[in-house]
Every structure is written in C-alpha cells, then in structure tokens.
Amino acid sequence: MNHDSSQIREVSHETRYEYDSPAECSQQICILQPQEGPTMAQGLLRKGQRLLDYKLQIQPNPSMVQTSCDSFGNVVHHFEMNYPHDSLSVMSRSQVEVSPMLYNGPLDDLASPSWFALSQSMNYLAGQAAALESQFRFESRHVPILNALRDYSMLDFWPDRPVVQAAYALMQRIHREFTYESGSTSIDTPILTVMDTRKGVCQDFAHVMLGVLRAIGLSARYVSGYMLTDPPPGQPKLMGADASHAWVSLWCGAEIGWVDFDPTNNQLPDTRYVTVAVGRDYADVPPIRGVVHGGGTAKLSVAVTVF
Q1: Do 263 and 247 form a contact (C-beta atoms < 8 A)?
Q2: Could you report the per-residue pLDDT of 29-66, keeping only the tens digit for each?
Q3: What is this structure's pTM?
Q4: Which residue ranges does the record assign to the Transglutaminase-like domain (predicted)?
C-alpha cells in the first residue's frame, strides 16, 4: 500500500459494559473523536489530519451529553445516564483524511538541533513566558522522572547528537529490548516494573520513552489513536480485531516541530495512523472513564476496526 499519498481512514470503536444488576445512574467522559487542525500539521515529520465525519452513538439514550475541549485541545464528550440501565454501549465512528509526512529523506540528512542544546533552550528564564511545549517536560501521573530512566538514555544521547536521530535510536532500542506481551501489565503497573521486566504493551512502551526523554529535559507527549493493521496474506480482515494504540510525540524545536515515534512497532507513524488525542500520559486521554452507582460487576468488551 502506498503511504506517500493522503489516505482516507475509517475507524469504528465500540465499548460495551454489561452489568450484573441494573446500574442506578452513571457519569462518563470519552475521548474518542480524532483531532484535526493546525496542531496536527506542525513539523517536517508530522502528518496532517482532517476529520471528514464523526458520529458518537450511546445506548441507552443518555440523559445529557455535552462536548468540550480540554487544555490539550482534545475533544471530550461528557454524558450521564440518570435512570437504571443494564448495559452501556458507546460506539464511535470516524472518517479521517490522513496526509503523509512532509519529509521523506534519510533522518541523518535532517538538520535538527542537538538534544542538549534544545533541552538547555527550554530552561525557564525569569521574566520570560514559558513555552507552551514546556508543559510536556515534567513528570506526570504515570511517568515519573527517575534516575533509571536518565541512565537508560546515555547510550543514545551524547551532547552533540541531533535530537531526531537520538530519539530514533532510542525508539529502536526500546523496540529491541522490550517484549510486547498482552496482559503482562495494567495501566497502574509502575514504570520501574516495566523497566525491570522488559515486558508490556504499547502504552508501557510509550510511557518508558516519555520518561527517558523527559528525564533529560526534553518535551514529549503521549499520543492515543489507532493504527491500520493488515491481515495475513490470503486472510480477510477481522471486524473488531484491531485495538487502540499509543505512541510518542517529541518536540524537536520550532523549525521541525513535533515528531512522532512508535516504539511498539519501531517506526515513524505514517498514513496508517489516526491520532485521537495528546496528553502527558494515558491518564489524560483514556478512551472512556466514569463513575457508575450500582450495577455490580461489569463485563467489558471492546471492538475496534480500522480501514
């Protein structure tokens, strides 16, 4: 498939809860609507994205739905069910045009600043406003600043190395040294445990890379979204067999902007990827989160399809 031209991607994402007993009421937020606009097009290596169509279907019908944007520019839907219900289904359907990377040459030919100079340039100076990108420089709920993460950077980040090349090498090393193992972690697994076991899933790999980059003073953000997966040769694509995905976006200076890296798949995201939201870590951009009163134990099922 040609990833050098714009592609139309269609995504369906259904989350369903079946309750043991009727839930009396619930309040939920969901972050499922793909981003678009100028923030998506910054940087030589950053793809652009245009939302062509979006539908959010909630069953049973909610008592209230409100839409807002959070501080990172993500679209957030809030809804309430103020009556008893046995189940909850949230179906998100998107049609998105994804543009290719604007820079397709060898990374070694890209004149990016050194990571050390970039890090130093972002230090706070009295009397000057902090750059907007600096908010992604600090530790967050799932990504603490740790010496172990700083030490892990030392093989790839020497003082004069260009930031894009150094980050690319880090992405490759995480992919090489960590094993993807579904179910090996939960969202609350500490990052040091992931570092010790060298096992996890995409959100763990993203958190590790974020932690290493922030530990040396760089600004990096967590990206949630989807990736098109191709079935084995001769096999049909299975409906609902895809999944949400997570990767990393690194600020590489004003001339280049944000550059995306996918340590799970060892590649720069291209037109196979659809960006939903950005934040400091997973806690800022969960697909769905809320509070349910009653209902007992809930059986959760998730089905995602990307075309």
Answers
A1: yes
A2: 999 999 886 555 555 566 689 999 999 999 999 999 99
A3: 0.94
A4: 194-265
